[in-house]
Amino acid sequence: MNWPLFSVIYSIAATVIIGVLMITALLSPFNQIPHIQMAVAAGLLISIPVGLFFTKKVGSITGNEEGYKVIH
Known about the structure:
2 helices; membrane; elongated
């Protein structure tokens, strides 16, 4: 697993998904604080498999699926 790549992709995916869910929550009748907090929590959880999926895709394209190698 390429953890540096995953952290970048997860940050981008989390920002986008949380933004979409928050806008949806604000435009719907469920626009109180607890609903917005649930949208943020759901966005964080949904972003994990999305980040893993795109990390594997980008890693397979670039040929760097394992991330940084430790040199002894």
